[in-house]
Design goal:
The complex is a heterodimer of chains A (about 280) and B (about 325).
Chain A lengths: L20 H9 L11 H13 L1 H14 L18 E8 L2 E8 L4 H8 L18 E4 L2 E4 L12 E3 L12 H8 L9 H16 L19 H7 L10 H13 L12 H15 L1
Parallel strand pairs in A: 1-5
Antiparallel strand pairs in A: 1-2, 3-4, 3-5
Chain B lengths: L4 E4 L3 H10 L3 E4 L5 H6 L7 E4 L8 E4 L2 E5 L4 H6 L1 H6 L1 H9 L3 H6 L2 H5 L6 H4 L41 H7 L3 E5 L5 E5 L22 E7 L8 E6 L10 E10 L2 E10 L6 E2 L1 H7 L6 H11 L11 H18 L5
Parallel strand pairs in B: 1-3, 2-3
Antiparallel strand pairs in B: 4-5, 5-8, 6-7, 6-8, 9-10, 10-11, 11-12
Helix pairs in contact in B: 5-9, 10-11, 11-12
Classes of the chains: A alpha+beta (about 280), B alpha+beta (about 325).
Chain lengths: ~280, ~325
Amino acid sequence: MNDDFDEPTAPHENLGPELTDDEEALLMEMPALTDDVGQTRRTFVGRTVAGSLGLFALNLLDLEKALAGLKPSPDVVFAADPVAENLVKVVLKVNGATKTLEIDSRVVLLDALRERLKLTGSKKGCDQGQCGACTVLVDGRRVLSCLTLAASVDGKEVTTIEGLAKVGHLHPMQAAFIKYDAFQCGYCTPGQICSAVGLLGEARRGEVSHVTEDVTVRTTRLTDDQIRERMSGNICRCGAYPGIVAAIQEVHSGKRTEHTWRFVEEQQLARVRREDANEAV
Amino acid sequence: MRPFKYARASDPTAAAGAVTANPQAKFLAGGTNLLDLMKEDVERPNELVDLTRLKLTEIRRIRGGVSIGALATNTDTANHPLIRRNYPLLTQAIVAGASGQLRNMATNGGNLLQRTRCQYFYDTAMPCNKREPGTGCGAREGLNRIHAILGWSEKCVATYPGDMANALYALEAVVRVRGAGGRERTIPIDEFHRLPGETPERDTNLEHGELIEAIELPGSSFAKNSHYLKVRDRASYAFALVAVAAALELDRGTIRQARVVLGGVAHKPWRSREAEAALSGKPASEESFRQAAEVAFKDAKPLAHNGYKVELGKRAVVRALMRASKVGGA
């Protein structure tokens, strides 16, 4: 193993295992990444993976080169997995694009999105319908993609976190989540936001919840308690609930409240770093 | 998950025929319970017949009552004006269950067929007569805090976990089913689920391959005075420790008719006709409700860890009836 952090100098051939779909997807996304201090992605990848994974990482870098020029076509028909059984052909309309898949009948929508369509925004938390991290919208309704067979949503419209923003504009719920600091680690966030968007539609249609006082009376106005109850299917291990409720309430009610925090500016950051450096001396 | 053949049904009779023909086939509707159990290797069908394209989603008036399509989602059912106006107890029960996402997926037929949440049923390393007949019951002498206090047998102490069905029992619903060859029959909801007895592997009296098409609700005089109370370990998104579907028909403060159905205490929704009889003709008062609650639990046989359910259940009955009757502004 390579224990120091030197950048690798020569690629090695055929030393590591084949890349999984996830790893391939990760590499496809890498060109967009550049870290704060101007370190290039290549240096970053090189240092990180060479330090931790050694020769396997070198192989990754090789593959990365080969993959760098490839861009996925929006309507590509994906071939079936070699080990798949009971193949089913499924046409999904995902975020406006039509995707045709040939899949094992066992594949749930979450895995089809993540592993086949490379839409890794939807997260696998518990994989048994208890955490809400996999929430997506099917025909405008929020559902759990981990308990939905991909085959059963053939022909339906699927919207994931990747499909909420319009070009250049975040979905209002995404913007509100940022404004209210409605997350910490971010793992549950795509599910929280998709769930919240679905919730807004339910409120507009006057749908009731467990804390509705009188279910015979139609109301479209949600209290904070209503939002809490209606979001109970989305668990946040970091406990960002106050921000989540505030974000949803603002988008729902249209009443904007003052932004209580903001991103640090470069000058401030530089000052803090200088101060830290002085302390260290 | 084990491999299975996936097929879409074109009509109810074909669906029933396909499942009847294969003892290891199952219907797939919302999938919220079945897929979870398949991932856990508890359910092992080798064929799924997808019902979700069938047109069994209608909610409509029928002679004096309402028919609810088996494939209408829980969300659509709870929010339908006919249900909210005439059967608010059913709306309350449905939205007490699961989460927004799950209710958008879950169908009424599937909800009736959901399986127990007994941990020993879910854990394939444990004995369970329901999952694997003859292996014994892990819960009988194990951790049985969430288990039954009424109607259990030495073979099985599991509870039926649902909410919607508790309201359907109180409303005396009828389940309309179709079998292979198009054969139709109706099952009164009270006879739909079974007590465990010697055959806990059978949750219901449906034959293999019989398809639920609709749930029919007779006209109800309970719309004004009903309440669904669910008590659980947290405020939302958990199964009931105890639940009560309470409905009253009042005539100037006197109870003309009552329905009391208990959830979370037995292998099926537990309708207490004794408690209902005890309420009939009595004034709608806390005193009457307390007496009825005593009657409802007089045969309770708690296990090692669920003795609390007896007192909790009695208090839940009183509170549900208080809210239903609006006595004391409750």
